[in-house]
Amino acid sequence: MAKFELRTPPYALDALEPHMSKQTLEFHWGKHHRAYIDNLNKQIDGTDLERKNLEELVKLSYNNGNPQACFNNAGQAWNHDFFWSSIYPGGGGQPDGEVLELIERDFGSFEEFAKEFKAAGVSQFGSGWVWLILKDAKLSVLKTSNALNPLIWGYIPLTVVDVWEHAYYLDFQNHRPDYLNTFLDKLISWEAVAGRLARAKAFVNLGEPTIPEK
Amino acid sequence: MAATATCTSSLFYGPRLLPLSGSRSSPKRRAAWRPQQVVLPMAKFELRTPPYALDALEPHMSKQTLEFHWGKHHRAYIDNLNKQIDGTDLERKNLEELVKFSYNNGNPQACFNNAGQAWNHDFFWSSIYPGGGGKPDGEVLELIERDFGSFEEFTKEFKAAGVSQFGSGWVWLILKDAKLSILKTSNALNPLIWGYIPLTVVDVWEHAYYLDFQNRRPDYLNTFLDKLISWEAVAGRLARAKAFVNLGEPTIPEK
């Protein structure tokens, strides 16, 4: 029986200062994320859904667009886990290696990617998330509303920024563009992206498969 | 109440066949044209100030919140709306018309989000007042008791709607089919688009309460009902609504 637990981020709550304050982590992780987990556990308590892992639960409860009662909490629980692992102290800047190659291949340049990512962030109206995903073996930017995430459409998420107002209001108030700049310049973990890309390659051919010479 | 539109006139010159003078036609008179001045009203929406100072709702809603919520968020909706409608026919609409028109029966046009939010925020600032909160009286209370059972039932339902509105949105008390009811809407949606009459609203976008309450939306909703809501505004809107809606059996006067 799965009772989901609130996993701690892979860094101390003050480790992202001054780019994301300890106060923000205390509320965002300690209250919001915790509430999604607690409420999800209450919703699935004593039902078959307890046997699913979180990713399965998200996809199952999305129910092809007719979401079940626990979808919002499940989606948000998953999204926040993914978000905390998508940022890191000393993060930001440009990727290198294969991640940079693919970004240049699929966006034209890193600057184009950053521009498109930020444009998606400012234009996501209301609450939501902006993702870098692998879709049809190509990188692209996806924005989703509320609790939705790329898993429900079968895409592979590589990174995400939370644009619910609770994610940035204490530090940036209405300045969502500044928050997005800070995310890209100071927070995003390109190592995490590289790791997710590597795992994705177990499932997706990113180019012509190469048959090894013997 | 819509944001005020300022009218600027423009001159329209075009070929028109108008007689130069007089009403009697004469075979010798040839039609001539003169320029026709037509004034086309152009609406640039303005950010109206709330009917109280920005610190007047302290400590229940901080001056800092008003400075951001009204001074930045609401202002941006107005500014961006003006940019979107600049030079288009939409400039001729008042804000309520624009909201309903741009909603486009569920296929919203580009300016709907800004129009809806501009209208919603105007309505919100007028729905709260220093010294507000508590219970209504008179006809408002009668109708609440008639349609919810009791004032306590109303507050319970209103708060439940507020905490369960997932993501950004609003919670309204509306007049629908001649009865009071509670409606929660997402993002920029409001009751006008479905033809309901809004009587009051609370903004549950996080920007509305995050500086003062952080994640504690239930506390914010309690404060709204206990300390902020203007029942006078509700009574005024109800009175105006009665020009359009029969709330009970129409009474035919004796005589």
Q: Gist?
A:
Chain A has 214 residues and is mainly α. The first copy, chain A, is built from eight helices and three strands.
What does this structure look like?
Two copies of one chain form a homodimer. With 214 residues, chain A is mostly helical. Chain A is built from eight helices and three strands. In chain A, helix 1 packs antiparallel against helix 3 (71-84), helix 2 (54-62) packs across helix 3 and helix 5 runs antiparallel to helix 7 (176-187). The model of chain A has no long low-confidence stretch (mean pLDDT 96). The interface between A and B is medium-sized, with 19 and 19 residues.
Mean pLDDT of chain A: 96
Largest sheet of chain A: 3 strands, antiparallel
Tally of alpha and pi helices of chain A = 8
Greatest contact between two chains: A-B, 19 and 19 residues
- Distance from N terminus to C terminus of chain A (CA atoms, Å) equals 47 Å
Spatial arrangement of strands, main beta sheet of chain A: 2-1-3
What are the low-pLDDT stretches of chain A, counting only 5+ consecutive residues below 50?
A: none
Overall shape of chain A: it is globular
Q: Beta-sheet strand percentage of chain A?
A: 5-15%
Radius of gyration of chain A: 18 Å
> How many β-strands of chain A, per DSSP?
3
The topology string of helices and strands of chain A comes to HHHHHEEEHHH
Oligomeric grouping of the chains: homodimer
Main structural class of chain A? mainly alpha
What helical percentage do the residues of chain A reach?
Answer: 40-55%
Cofactor (chain A): Fe cation
Organism (chain A): Sphagnum jensenii
InterPro entries (chain A): Mn/Fe_SOD, Mn/Fe_SOD_BS, Mn/Fe_SOD_C, Mn/Fe_SOD_N, Mn/Fe_SOD_N_sf, SOD_C_sf
Domain Manganese/iron superoxide dismutase N-terminal (chain A): 3-86
